Amino acid sequence: MGIYSRLLSYLKPHRGRLLFAVLCMLGYTVAHSLVSVTVFLVLNGIQNQDRVVIDDLPKVSWFEKLHLPALDLPSIEFSTTFVPFMVVGVFLVRGLFEYASRYQMSIVGLRVIRRIRDQLYAHLTRLSMNFYSKGRTGDLMSRTVQDVSVVQAGVTDALVDLVKEPLVILFQIPLVFFWGGPFAFIALIVFPAVLLPISFLGRRLRTIQRKIQEQIADISSQMQETFSGINVVKAFNMEQYEVRKFEAINRKVFNFLKRAVVITTGQRPLVEVMGAVAIACAIWYGIRVLPLDRFASFLTCLFLFYEPLKKLSKVNATIQQSVGASYRIFELLNETPQIQNRPDSITLEGQIDSVEFSKVSLAYERGGEVLREIDFLVRADEIVAIVGTSGAGKTSLVNLLPRFYDPTKGVLKINGFDLRNYEVHSLRAKIGIVTQDTFLFNTTVYENIAYGRLEASVEEIKEAAKAAFADEFIQALPTGYGTVIGERGVTLSGGQRQRLAIARALLKNPPILILDEATSQLDTESEREVQRALERLMANRTVFVIAHRLSTIQNADRILVLDQGRLVQSGTNETLLKEGGVYKRLYDLQFNV
Ligand code: DUT
Ligand code: MG
C-alpha cells in the first residue's frame, strides 16, 4: 500500500482538476441512477395504457409490513410520450459527465507519467559512476519506458474507475432497497463474498507483474548487449546462440504473461457467476411479491449494481500491475548519488597551483584495494606520465580527479584543499578528459565539439578543430561541420574520432588534462596527426597522461610507475632507466629496446 500512496502523492499538484473530475463523476452517477427509474416508467406506461400513473409507490406489500406512518404523496400522471425523451436525456447527460471526468482524469494521469519519466531520467543522470559500473543500460531503459507505461494504466483509466464505480455502487444501494425492499439484502449479501477472491487474485497479480517487468528488462538488456556488440557476435558466428538466449528469456516472459492472463480473464466470469447467484435469489423472491414495473426496476438496479463490481475487479488487477511496476521505478528513485556536494561546498575558481594525492587508497564496491597509499604532488603545468602493467590501477587513479569515485582512504587535494570541499561541477569544469574510445553523440560535428560549451561561437569551434588537425577531414564530410554523425552512414575512423575529442577538450580549455591513451590502433599517418594535436592540447596545462607512447614518456616532466596499485617508482625517463626495476622491465617490453 505504501507504494500506491507514493504513486498517489504525484496527484497532489492536480487537486483542482481532480476535484472537477470527481464532481463530474457525481453528475454521472446521478444520471446513471435514473436508468432504473426510466425502466419503471416504461413498464408502468405499458400497464396503464399510454399514461404513466404513480400513485401507489408506498403501497407495496413490504412497505405495509413496516407499518410506517402513511406517506401522503400526491399521485403523478403524465403521457408516455415524455418517456423516450427522458431516456435520451438521461444517457446524454450521463455521457457528457463521463466524458468530462474521464478526460480530466486521463490528462492528470498523463501529467503524472510525464513527471515520473522526467524525474527518473534526471535522477539517473545524477547517479554516480559506481551505479553505472553495474552496467544494465537495457534494464534502465526498460524501467523508464516500459515500467512507466504499465504504471500509466494504473493512474489514468484505473483511477477513473476507482473513484467512479464506488460512487455508482453507493448510489445504487438505496435504489436496490427502494425497488426491492428488505429482501434486497439477499442480493447484496454476495457483495463481500466477491471481494475476497478479487483481493487475493490482485495480490498474486502484483507479484507476477513484477516478474514480468524484470523479464522484459532482461529482453532489453539482451538486445542492447547484442546490438552494441554486433560485430563480435557476427565475427564469432554467435547469432544462433544469441537468438536462443533471447528465446529463452522471451519464453519466460510468455509464461508469466500466461499466468497473468489466467487471473485477469478468470476474474470476470467469477464475479459474474456470483452476481448471477445474487440476482437469482432476487428473482426467486421478487417474482412472488413485486408488481411487474417495480420488479423490472429492481432487476435493472441489481444489474447496474453488479456492473461496477465487475469493473472494480478489473481495476484492481490494473492497479496491482502498476504497483508491481512502480516498485521497480521507486527502486531507482531511491538510489542516492554517491558523489554529492557538501552543504558548505565552495566553487573551485582561479588557477590550479597544485594537485596532491595524500595516502590515497581505493577499493571498488566488490573486491580489494586497487590503489594503495598513493602519495605525490604535482605543480601547475607539469606533465605527469603514469605507466604500469594492465590492471595496475592507472585509469582508477586518474578517475579520482574528476571525482568519478572518491578514495576509500586518504585525500586528494587541489590548491591544498580536499577535493570534496569543491562544488562538483566547478571541479569538473577544470578538468578535460580524452580517452581512446571517444564517445560521439548522434548530432552535428559542431555540437559534438561544443559538447560541454554549447554557447561557443562557430569561429571558436572551427578554431579548436583546426588546432586539433580535424578541420581538414571535417570539411570533406558531406555537409562539413553540419554533418550529423551516425546518420546516413557517416561514421568516423578511430583517429578522426579522437581528434574530435581533442578539439572538444581544446574548446573547453581546462587547466587540468587527463589523457588515457589505451594502446593506439591508429595508422602511422593519423597517429602522427593525433600526436601533434595532443602535443598542442598538453601545452600549458597540468597533464596526467597514461602513457603507452615512447614520445609521451620522454616529454613528461615526471613518470609515476604503478604496480598492483602501489606507486613503486617516480622520476624522469633517464633516472628511472638507471634505477632499473619495474620501469626498466616495462620500458624494454613496450619498446623492444
Ligand atoms: N576495477 C574494478 N571496477 C572498476 C574498474 C576497475 O574492479 O569499475 C578493477 C580492475 C583492475 C583494477 O580495478 O583489477 C585496476 O583497473 P584499472 O582500469 O585502473 O587498470 P589500468 O591500469 O587502467 O589498466 P589498463 O592499462 O588495462 O587500462
Ligand atoms: Mg586503463
Describe this protein's structure.
It is a single chain. With 593 residues, this protein is an alpha/beta fold. It is built from 22 helices and twelve strands. The two termini are 70 Å apart. The chain binds deoxyuridine-5'-triphosphate and magnesium ion. Deoxyuridine-5'-triphosphate (DUT) is lined by residues 133, 364, 367, 370, 388, 390-396, 518.
Number of domains: 3
Mean pLDDT: 87
CATH class of the largest domain: Mainly Alpha
Bound molecules: deoxyuridine-5'-triphosphate, magnesium ion
| CATH homologous group name of the largest domain | ABC transporter type 1, transmembrane domain
Spatial strand arrangement across the major sheet: 8-9-10-5-11-12
Uncertain residue ranges: none
Shape designation: elongated
**Over the alpha carbons, how many angstroms does the gyration radius reach?**
37 Å
Query: Main beta sheet, described?
Result: 6 strands, mixed
Number of strands: 12
Q: Helix/strand-derived class? A: alpha/beta
Residue share in helix: 55-70%
Under the CATH scheme, the architecture of the largest domain is Up-down Bundle
Assembly form of the protein: single chain
Distance between the termini: 70 Å
